[in-house]
Amino acid sequence: MSVVQSIAHQSPPPAAVARILPWHVRLWQRDGVRRLLMLVVLAISWEIAARWQNNELLLPGFLQTAQALIDGMASGELLQRVGVSLVVLVKAYCIGVALALVLTSVAVSSRLGRDLLGCLCAMFNPLPAIALLPLALLWFGLGERSLILVLVHSVLWTLALNTSTGFLGVPPTLRMVGRNYGLRGLRFVTLILIPAALPSIIAGLKVGWAFAWRTLIAAELVFGTSSGQGGLGWYIFVNRNELYTDRVFAGLVVVILIGLLVEGLVFRMLERLTVWRWGMQH
Questions:
Q1: Which of 33, 36, 198, 219 is the most buried if burial means most Cβ atoms within 10 Å?
Q2: What sign for the dihedral angle of Cα 199, 201, 204, 208?
Q3: With 0-12 CB in 10 A as exposed, 13-18 as middle and 19+ as buried, what is 44?
Q4: pLDDT digit string (tens) for 179-236?
Q5: CATH number of the structural domain 62-276
């Protein structure tokens, strides 16, 4: 037995070491506990600032906002608004992801495809998605299709750029392995390029989701384009006009909570099942 193996054999396992530590140290090592503590500190700071401001119209307190959030959930209005926004967002997000994968698949198959993708991304990626909304309203009117067009634009180019960058970073060895197995076209993309470029693709999915979510709320705030079935942004806009500031803050809290849930549940779970499990990220 070597010296290293002897030391490793004599060393206690990590679980035993963890049990030796004091309970408060073990508790502090949990990510969820630290994040929850940060949120509690922010909530207390918010309540103190609101009481010091002493103007509910300008800055309602955390407790008042929480009550408005509970009332909105209990009445069903807030849940209905959230449902309208999420339905539109999911439709547009799926369309944008599908188009991005098609574009990048074409780009890796030929030099002309790479030039086309590079040219389109250079033109449209710097263009703010919300700037297209007036044209979308002119073409499709007030409704879901206008929002979908704008949201697809906010997802498509970011994801296409990240996916293309990930494909270009695939090692030549993996490419040669795929070629030696006779993989061509779509099979080469799905079996070789996409798994190898998955960290970049997931990063693009996360950024595309954030862009689409912000664009949707901004579009509903400014234009309210939901054919009378306003979403979460429209809920915030209407309550701002009626000077229900606590409801406005409640709507903003819901925007933040949905972003945290999608980031912490959907994308974190996707990373654990793929790139973390495969040892591509730590």
A1: 219
A2: negative
A3: exposed
A4: 777 777 777 777 777 777 788 888 888 888 989 998 888 888 876 655 456 788 888 8
A5: 1.10.3720.10
